[in-house]
């Protein structure tokens, strides 16, 4: 079956000229909203990605969990490669501000406000705030219909001050998310369940209040020098804080510091990256038998020095990553190589690359809750380590209208996390109580070591300025030491997206994605596993520019009304239609 999945990925990637490109960031967010005009400043060490399905007049709000019907979430991560000279041109009127509103089925209401200062040569300021509410109901796997409301609110401020030789930046963001634990569970309030100490407790004591709330504030200050000459030193430094809390009473405070120094010396270059991340979690005293809270503190210190050798048609970086993780559950030290080589086979056409590296993923409490909003409030938090990653790939351009990239990566990891429903046991006459298991609609994590093989690719085709298409595919092969499956992780992801200027002032975007089958841990089945079927997701959106100030938009997600479960027991909304108006001023 795995070989069949690999063949499916490869076949989809050769549909357009037989080449693919490494994926960019997730394109699975929901409602498109008109974006403020943001002038760019030359940054000699800015990471660029290719292919780029860019849309300079659109951005999308970040929803942290998936109740809204939307294009399916993927596991893509951007891979830094050469910049593509491709960027969709849209009709763009440089107004300082805009107001967007819309409505949809599932009693969905959305609004967004953006404000920008554009003209000043010394600084830029962008403000963005919005809210989305949905009050619809969803049918669970037992055919019961339940309310699944949510309310997302966000506010963002980005500020840049340009000095003669440096740039000061300040970025702030606030998120407030309200939702309910609406998922299916076999846990019953009237039944009794065993506590760890051997006593029995009512099931009501294990069922949380239906409402939950997440709130987070982030602020980062950065400083970098303005250097265009590649022969001169470049630096970048940042400092930030993060505060997080939920309705249960768990709070987290985080601090991060870091920077980068790049010093060319002839054909060599010295590169030094480093950072510190610190998180401390405080918890309520006790909330009955449902939760077992532990205060946690984590400190991650990392240093990544390297030397780059530059040749006419090649580049070689040799370095290492040194990291120390100081945790309330124990301290660990990591040392991994960081070697990457790149060879230009045909200038501007084909480049091959390969290397070996490692990384440490510092998983803090807030990150885990925003990854899975239905996680138990006492979820354990550990950092995962990919101590050895082997990677290789190819990238380039067939022409000015076609870019491609394809890559393969093999990694060995420790302490990767996988989501499973919390389980409980109940006594039954004549039956071993350990054999009568039930699960909750809250999630816990299990950790495992293993190996991951990743094959990814993308192809970007832009036949003309007002039309572009992106074909993408990925295969994930998990080999775990203890767990039977990589719970809630897909093996295959395929997708095709496009943006087209149909006629003057009318822009259409469409996409079709396949999200492969996944597996959930199910203690109520004899096999202990449940298949979450793969789905085909079709989306369509359009915007019409009526005048310089007014435009109208509409979108339809999940046009096939597929029943998709991102998490076991939690179906997402079916066919979802929204429409609205945008006023620029």
TrEMBL record:
InterPro entries: Beta-barrel_TonB_sf. The keyword Signal applies. Residues 1-23 form the signal peptide. Keywords: Cell outer membrane, Membrane, Receptor, Signal. It comes from the Bacteria. It is found in: Cell outer membrane. GO terms for cellular component: cell outer membrane. Its main location: membrane. The keyword Secreted does not apply. Transmembrane segments: none annotated. This is TonB-dependent receptor.
């Amino acid at each position: 079956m795995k070989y069949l999945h690999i063949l499916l990925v490869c076949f989809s990637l050769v549909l357009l000229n037989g080449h693919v490109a490494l994926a960019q960031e997730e394109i699975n967010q929901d409602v498109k909203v008109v974006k403020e005009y943001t002038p760019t400043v030359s940054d000699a060490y800015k990471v660029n990605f290719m292919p780029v399905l860019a849309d300079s007049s659109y951005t999308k709000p970040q929803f942290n969990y998936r109740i809204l019907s939307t294009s399916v979430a993927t596991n893509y991560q951007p891979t830094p490669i050469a910049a593509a000279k491709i960027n969709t041109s849209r009709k763009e009127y440089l107004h300082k501000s805009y107001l967007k509103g819309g409505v949809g089925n599932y009693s969905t209401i959305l609004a967004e406000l953006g404000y920008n200062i554009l003209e000043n040569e010394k600084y830029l300021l962008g403000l963005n705030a919005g809210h989305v509410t949905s009050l619809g109901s969803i049918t669970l796997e037992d055919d019961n219909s339940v309310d699944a409301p949510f309310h997302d609110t966000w506010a963002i401020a980005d500020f840049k001050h340009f000095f003669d030789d440096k740039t000061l930046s300040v970025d702030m963001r606030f998120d407030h998310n309200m939702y309910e634990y609406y998922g299916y569970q076999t846990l019953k309030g009237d039944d009794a369940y065993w506590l760890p100490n051997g006593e029995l407790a009512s099931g009501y004591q294990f069922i949380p209040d239906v409402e939950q709330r997440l709130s987070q504030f982030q602020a980062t200050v950065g400083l970098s020098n303005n250097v265009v000459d590649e022969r001169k030193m470049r630096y970048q430094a940042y400092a930030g804080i993060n505060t997080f809390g939920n309705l249960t009473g768990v709070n987290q405070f985080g601090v991060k510091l870091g920077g980068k120094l790049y010093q060319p010396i002839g054909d060599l270059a010295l590169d030094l990256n480093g950072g510190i991340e610190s998180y401390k979690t405080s918890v309520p005293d006790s909330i009955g038998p449902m939760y077992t809270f532990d205060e946690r503190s984590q400190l991650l210190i990392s240093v990544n020095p390297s030397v780059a050798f530059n040749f006419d048609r090649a580049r070689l970086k040799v370095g290492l990553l040194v990291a120390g993780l100081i945790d309330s559950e124990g301290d660990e030290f990591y040392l991994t190589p960081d070697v990457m080589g790149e060879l230009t086979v045909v200038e501007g056409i084909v480049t091959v690359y390969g290397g070996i590296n490692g990384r440490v993923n510092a998983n803090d409490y807030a990150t885990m809750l925003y990854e899975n909003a239905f996680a138990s409030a006492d979820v354990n938090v550990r950092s995962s380590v990919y101590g050895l990653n082997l990677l290789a790939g190819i990238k380039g351009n067939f022409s000015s209208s076609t870019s491609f990239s394809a890559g393969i990566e093999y990694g060995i990891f420790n302490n990767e996390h996988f989501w499973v429903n919390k389980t409980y046991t109940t006594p039954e006459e004549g039956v071993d109580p350990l054999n009568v298991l039930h699960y909750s609609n809250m999630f816990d994590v299990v950790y495992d070591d293993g190996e991951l093989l990743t094959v990814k690719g993308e192809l970007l085709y832009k036949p003309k300025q007002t039309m572009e298409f992106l074909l993408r595919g990925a295969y994930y092969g998990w080999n775990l030491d203890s767990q039977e499956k990589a719970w809630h992780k897909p093996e295959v992801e395929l997708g095709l997206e496009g943006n087209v200027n149909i006629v003057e002032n009318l822009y259409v975007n469409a996409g079709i994605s396949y999200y492969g089958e996944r597996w959930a841990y199910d203690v109520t089945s004899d096999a202990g596993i449940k298949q979450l079927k793969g789905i085909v997701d079709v989306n369509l959106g359009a915007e019409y520019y009526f005048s310089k100030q007014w435009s109208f938009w509409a979108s339809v997600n999940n046009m096939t009304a597929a029943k998709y479960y991102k998490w076991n027991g939690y179906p997402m909304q079916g066919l979802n239609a929204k429409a609205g108006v945008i006023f620029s001023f």
